[in-house]
Design a protein that fits this description.
Elements: E1 2-5, E2 17-21, H1 29-45, E3 49-55, H2 58-62, H3 74-83, E4 88-93, H4 96-99, H5 103-114, E5 117-123, H6 136-146, E6 149-153, H7 165-173, H8 177-184, E7 189-195, H9 200-203, E8 209-213, E9 223-231, E10 234-243, E11 254-259, E12 270-280, H10 288-308
Parallel strand pairs: 1-4, 2-3, 2-5, 3-4, 5-6
Antiparallel strand pairs: 7-8, 7-12, 8-11, 9-10, 9-12, 10-11
Helix pairs in contact: 5-6, 7-8
Length: 312
């Protein structure tokens, strides 16, 4: 899959294509349906399938300081899009200047002049252009004028709720990683570099990998989780702790993982942590011995849960 930043990266010889547009944070099951339809249409027409997305999140430009937690970093998002059959991910820098483009200017300058779209596939709630003035209806009218088709797909969900990135963020924030996985279609994960912590875990027989996460990561609620550490192609069982380590009067919120049956030095490596199930709240123990005994139980529960939830 090709990865472009800005429409300036479109090759001069670029022909027609099918485009889908959105932030697609999480690339959840609703997103997958829209992207899958764009790929299908592109294959039918014999042209590339392009995902047009944005960085940073538009809300950060509209209301600075309000960037929402991110379900999928740019690298993970690109990998997921490639798995879905996308040919090009084009990331548009969402700047104050870009925000001021009118709906007509966005269609003409981005979709027609640069990308030469043959078709556009979007969700039925898609808005574009300054102040969100553009809708599926205005885009359809523009398509008739410039010679491209538009499909606005109904949003997916259950009887109770529509699947959305906002909904999944609320699940992750509450620690309900099992329900988040159901809506995502895979386990939620965070990514970052393994850094040195206080190394208390090593002293009590439970050395942990502490992660310095990518900015704005959607981190689950404080607690202990069964999950996996993702290191390249290796998928390693792990008991994951999120919190301030109250037994040792910690103040800094940390994400760390005890990797089962593993002893390699991975400091400085970029890894992921995938969350399978929440085990318990983070609590303070009166003694280190009490903490270790609970960690023994956490590890056994992790083994048992992961044996019932194979990776992949």
């Amino acid at each position: 899959m090709q990865r472009w930043r800005g429409v300036e990266a479109v090759p001069p010889s670029w022909g027609r294509c099918v485009v889908t547009i959105g932030i697609f944070d999480g690339v959840h099951q609703g997103h997958q349906r829209i992207i899958g339809r764009a790929v299908e249409l592109a294959r039918d027409r014999g042209v590339p399938a392009v995902v047009l997305t944005f960085d940073p999140h538009p809300i950060e430009i509209i209301r600075p300081g309000s960037h929402p937690p991110v379900l999928t970093g740019s690298r993970h998002k690109a990998d997921l899009l490639e798995e879905l059959g996308v040919d090009v991910m084009c990331v548009l820098p969402f700047t104050p200047e870009f925000r001021r483009l009118t709906a007509d200017e966005f269609v003409h300058e981005v979709l027609v002049e640069r990308l030469h779209v043959s078709g556009v596939v979007i969700g039925e709630n898609f808005r574009y252009g300054a102040e969100g003035a553009g809708t599926v209806e205005t885009l359809t009218a523009a398509g008739r004028r410039f010679g491209f088709t538009v499909e606005g797909l109904a949003l997916q969900g259950s009887a109770e709720t529509t699947y959305s990135s906002t909904y999944i963020r609320s699940l992750v924030d509450a620690g309900d990683v099992a329900e988040a996985a159901r809506v995502l279609g895979r386990e939620h994960r965070v990514e970052g570099l393994v850094v040195r912590g206080d190394q208390r875990g090593r002293a009590i027989g439970y050395p942990t990998a502490n992660l310095s996460l990518i900015p704005w990561s959607a981190v689950p609620a404080d607690g202990i989780y069964a999950g996996r550490l993702l290191r390249g192609k290796d998928v390693l069982s792990a008991a994951i702790s999120i919190g301030t380590n109250p037994t040792f009067a910690g103040r800094e919120r940390r994400v760390e993982a005890f990797v089962l049956d593993f002893s390699e030095d991975i400091y400085g490596e970029r890894v992921g942590l995938a969350f399978t199930s929440r085990l318990r709240d983070t609590v303070r123990f009166d003694t280190v011995e009490g903490l270790v005994a609970q960690m023994d139980r956490d590890v056994e529960r992790t083994r048992e849960i992961l044996s019932r939830h194979p990776s992949g």
